[in-house]
User: Fold these one by one.
Assistant:
Number 1:
Amino acid sequence: MADMLLEARAVAKHFGGVKALRDVSLGIQRGEIYGLIGPNGAGKTTFFNCMTGLYIPDGGGFTFDGAPLLADAPHQAAERGIARTFQNIRLFGNMTALENVMVGRHVRTKAGVFGAMLQNAATRDEEAAIRQKAIDLLHYVRIEDRADDLAKNLSYGDQRRLEIARALATEPKLLCLDEPAAGMNATETEELRDLIDGIRRDGTTILLIEHDVKLVMGLCDRVAVLDYGALVIEDVPAVVQKDQRVIEAYLGA
Amino acid sequence: MSKWLNPRSAFGIALIAAALIALPFVAAMGGQAWVRILNFAILYVFLALGLNIVVGFAGLLDLGYIAFYAVGAYTYALLASPHFGLHWPFWTILPIGAVIACFFGVLLGSPTLKLRGDYLAIVTLGFGEIVRIFMNNLNAPVNITNGPQGITLIDPVAIGGFKFSGTTQILGYSLSGPQKYYFLLVALAILVIIINLRLQNSRIGRAWQAIREDEIAAKAVGINTRNLKLLAFAMGASFGGVAGGVFSAMQGFVSPESFSLIESIMILAMVVLGGMGHIPGVILGAVLLSILPEVLRYGVGPLQMAVFGKMLIDPESLRMLIFGLALVLVMRFKPAGLWPSPERKRELQGDA
Amino acid sequence: MDIFLQQIINGLVQGSIYALVALGYTMVYGIMGLINFAHGEVVMIGTLVTITVAGLLIKVGMPVALAGLAGLIAAILCCMALGWGLERIAYRPLRNAPRLTPLITAIGMSIVLQNLAMIIWGRNYLTFPPLLPKMDFEFAGANFTLVQVVIVLVSAATMGGLLFLVYRTKLGMAMRATSQNPAVASLMGVNINRVIAAAFVIGSALGAVAGVMVGTYYEIAHYQMGFMLGLKAFTAAVLGGIGNLAGAMLGGVLLGLIEALGAGYIGDLTGGFLGSHYQDIFAFVVLIVVLMFKPSGLFGEKTGDRA
């Protein structure tokens, strides 16, 4: 077995009578870009939400970085090293781009109320470090010139980038991107592709949920396909592309 | 901190300081009653800024804030009055009051902070009423609060041998009791302003704003939203407790009547009417809403006499009528408050 | 045992009044997410209008029953106009304002209405004319009056009428659609302004009926009577799950019962330590406990976080 960062064991979730996830088991290796695809309503986002603690799975569980992942508290997922972006961008709209990324540093810093009130040396140093790291990350995703604009006033593509920067600020081991290319034009998608590739090269494992099959096949090391809440196949892109069941799932046969 | 050395800011600060020092003497020309009104305005600034942490920073709608003020006030009253024969010093009781109020804040907050906004509002409101009803009735079978009569002869603030009640001569000037309290209150208010400012621009303050903006996204970046909300609640409660202690000492008398729901609503109105989350706005709101009813109290009667030549309408109800109308009108024409923060203004324009 | 039955009857009567007032809160909240703090004042004005109109008509020799009916109709009309005016003048301009803005407006309107009432009707308690003959009944050792019977029956009939309106008429369908999603409802051709105005007007009419019932029951009225009544009713609405009509009705009745039983037994339960003057805390204690275990109220829909 390769070096697994995240393993899902028979994860199940249902809403009322609808089975959104049927015993999904899969594994993400350290350092890879892992794609999760499937038609609309296949359960991709549900899987995501179970993993990041927004939903509590009805069965099964996750192992992350060698220890079980507690499913009931979203903030703990980030603490353990799982960061995510949202399908329909969720930024802190009335905070500046820089502040959004600074909030991302929250989980890796520790100044409390008394530090804030006393403004002692440790707090001031930490605050300066938070700011510097946030500026660096804005450079990294190339929106440093929008640092002082309110997040909601950024263009769509820049908002996606900002969300990635905020996620990276938590120093994740696994970065989960939920349909990052949705609504992007060809040029923007190309730039996004370079960004994701760069993040991986800098050492972060990536889980990519996408609709854009071309992007997934070109970028991912391995791909899993979900259909009707069940795992259809998990393999390298070349194999997945030719799989009859995948073709059927997408053509709706 | 280099901006403090900027000559223009230094001049501005000197001007404000001079005005703050002159104010109680100017007010005293209209009688000591006006100094007392001024003192209450500053006490309300303190309270409103405490509530601003809860409502403005963390976005939690608290309609029972006065309960924590009451807890602080009664803590002081019981530990420094003939009621139990205890006369502990001011500086010992004030932190005790803050801690007890904080404890009540956590007690109420920990089971209820997961509730959505408007439910939290009614729960906190209910808590405020529960506290008031207990204070009204805990005089039998064991007399703890002395019931509706309240507790009298509470010790005034004294630091060392210096008493804040009665008139003293300092450097040839005579300072009245209310004037001395004024300076104590201003010092406390400046402290709470500094704490508010520092909190706002800190890791904690940013986390609160993030929760207010989008709670799910805040959780996703690792913010423990429950603990941070509880923290805001507990801090607001502590400030309420301190304000209550000062109120108790300054008045020398507390009764449940001072802690009715309308007081909670009044403080919330100060925060919202001034400009929620914006510290200068909240200060403005507190000063306006505490002074306006008093100005109306003295102004409405004579005005009627001048215009109509007789008293047509009971001045007390006319005064409250105008006050209510003022709330409605300000919200109608300045929905984000009289002095909103620049972002909030932009936020509103974005929605329109 | 007869104390138990007696308190059940008292609680049922008080609870029907809470339920009617709670409906006014829950309709407005369900449709526009606003806590209309001034609703308690609308109820108070309903009571006071009835005192004036019915009192005057009785004085000029009209039969009591007829005068009472005229008073009720006058109260309903006045309150409907008031509810409509509140929405039109105070709340409508604030549809897109920050969340707390309309709440402060509601508080301001509540202060305005209270003091207007004080200017018009004075600061003293007013006696409510006895509109129903005094008749006592006895059942299994418990006493109840004709007034109590009428209150329960009238409020049941009124609530039945409301349910018919909401679930069987076109206006009702528009109201339900708006409470689900105002934007979509308006795309479907629902006139949102009309629906919101209707919620205020209908809620106020129910409030007027409740106001007349309160007056008949307690036989006195006062310009401040609406405040605590409104608070309790709002508590009842939250208890049942705010925005939910059946929840408001059941929450109201439940609150009435809890208060009556609590007041009757608290002395025994605490060995005399706490007396019946703690009656007012039951509403809030029960509310806090219920919300701890059922955060959306007893009958409210579960509103989970959506990603």
Number 2:
Amino acid sequence: MSPSSPEPSSGAAAATADAPPAALPEQTVRAEQRWTPAKIVLWVAISLVGALGWVMLALARGETINAIWFVFAAVATYLVAYRFYAKFIQNRLVKPDDTRATPAEAEYDGKDYVPTDRRILFGHHFAAIAGAGPLVGPVLAAQMGYLPGTIWIIVGVVLAGAVQDFLVLVISTRRHGRSLGQMARDELGVVGGVAAFIATLTIMLIIVAILAMVVVNSLGESAWGVYSVGLTIPIAIFMGLYLRFLRPGKVFEVSVIGVALLLFAIISGRWVAETGWGDALFHLDRPVLAGLIIAYGFIAAVLPVWVLLAPRDYLSTFMKIGTIVMLAVAIIVVRPSISTPAVSEFASRTDGPVFTGGLFPFLFVTIACGALSGFHAMISSGTTPKLVEKERQMRMIGYGGMLMESFVAIMALVAAVSIDRGIYFAMNSSAAATGGTIEGAAQFVNSLGLTGVNLDPATLAQTAKDVGEESIVSRTGGAPTLAVGLAGIMHKLVGGPAMMAFWYHFAIMFEALFILTSVDAGTRVARFMLADALGGWKPRFRDHSWRVGAWITTAVMVAGWGSILMMGVLDPLGGINTLFPLFGIANQLLAAVALAICLVVFARKGRTWSLLIIFVPLAFTAVVTITGSFQKIFSSDPGVGYWANHIAYRDALAAGKTELGLAKTPEDMHAVVFNTAVQGSLSILFVVCTIIVIVVSLWRTWQALNGRNLLDTEAPRVESAYFAPAGMVPTPAEKELEGRWRDHLREHPEKDLAGTVGH
Amino acid sequence: MSTPVAPAGRQAGGTGPVPGRLVGALRGVRRFARGVLGSDAYDRYLHHHRITGCAHAPLSEKEFWRLKYAEQGENPSAGCC
């Protein structure tokens, strides 16, 4: 092959005459992709490994199954999807043009817009999208057995989640890196734009509230946890001061110091929790903790970024990537055997103790971020499009980044199903069901009638002792279950049984760390959204340096998520099991909004049949979330429907009853009446906003297919004078062209935007 | 244009001795970690300043980071769930 054809493919007239082309000629790209016998053998082998993994997961009916099959099925499916489906999307729908400059090149400013090495950007993007969501959702979904969750996490990411992340990145990159909200306004007009705005803002609040509840549930009555997570605040402030006054810019150095201090905080937690004063000081009830987190959320969000948010973000990034790599290694080396059934009794019922509702639609919303996450659309339309070097790299960053996130969800699922099923249900059933005692929990779990489950209270006591906690009963929210699973796997790799308590608290700290960062960042984003909306009424709110305005908007937003958090913590029915579906629905409704916007954009670009790539996941997620919302609103089963439950409790109170179901006092009953009304109203708000967005976008798409209303919102084309390979590993032709660019830039250092040649 | 993260490159080269390659690999890891954390922001700024030929003197490292955090406070971006 001759990659060095001097003629650029589509007449890319770079800034100077002697510059090499900014893209490989199309025929070279095609020649490099030609099938060779070796490639065919390789892909057949990958497919066979994946098929074997799936057969073992789906059909093997032994007592146990090895966790390695999850890894095989997932990784092989990801590789095939990335190589074939993502490339198909790229060729048919996206049609990237590497002779066109990305915002990073065209609007290069050395700060927000900088061409960034694709491998670094991949890490950066992944760290931004990965959080507590993919870790918590699969744990709760394990109620239905491992197979339904595994299928949705893997198939969902391939056909929906990764497609959304990829396409939002594509459309934002072609529009100066505009945000999802701005694109909604541009593409859908006022009504669709306003609906998208309300949906985004309320969804943000519900996400912050429920993540905060996960932290509260994992730290409640755990002196060790409260102490070590609490210490992250002074550690972050120390890092902030260090960067501000001692050694500005030494981010890597201070992060290493910070991580060392974090490890010390975890280790010393045991000593502190064992002392009388430590226990007295840090052993806190959930409502108290919720109050502290609300106060923290307000203070953190009004403080300057350098004090808490920025250093905390460095710590989370460090811990996130480190722990995920470590867990992957541990699962591959330890290969735990799993005794949870593929499909459990609860898959065909609607009364599971972990979350209520049937497999369809509630499994799909519970898994949330691991398979499809609307929240990612905010990242894909925020920082990443301003840093990407070449349009062809977006497949790797957008689609590939989301595949990684899905793998994190698979690992969380493996960790959750690797623990004993009896312990799993004892931990994830609400305190109202278990009574909060080991005897009550054992009795409750045994009464569920699960095959092969016979829980002994002593097992629960022993597990709690192993992980250094007083009790593990009714530790709902997913994080503690994941921590027990992770401790069970990690101690076999490092430290033995004596280290289980360390690994448990390591996992708790790890999740709390980035949830608290999300609480802070989410409150800030919501505050700015509110300030911009209020600015239409009182322009002074748009002035972000107006402190009073900042405090008012922050207080309103904190009150918004704080009240939902408090409501969940005090909920007599358990909180997580009623609120988590709302979180999942909200997140996937946002995904539907993002996909709907992509649909309009590509319809206006003149695509026709290839729109099915977007339409199919959009239709699926719309059906799932709208069905879920309708069941939550209209179901007559009080276990599922918010309003049915509301009416049942209201009528019971009117009839003079003093207890009903899990609520044992009239106060509890009043709380249920109030909470279900709030939850029911939020469900209605979300679904109405989303239906508006979907209807508007389908109408615009229909118009575009008929050649009407063809708005072109793309930024004007700028010719690229920059080259970088498309994938993780450069092909021979890309290497050759990279070499020519390196020689060229040595002569023209002023054109070396990424600054990697001169050094 | 972009130097590979892993060794390769000009200095480390295929024929280089093992320690040279090791140094190259470590340098790649450092560059990756700095890039993902955003620790290289000042270097990027200085580079931009150099190649765009601004007449005024660049900000000091301390001033640069103060300004950067102030701007970050004005334009928050959410991490994820």
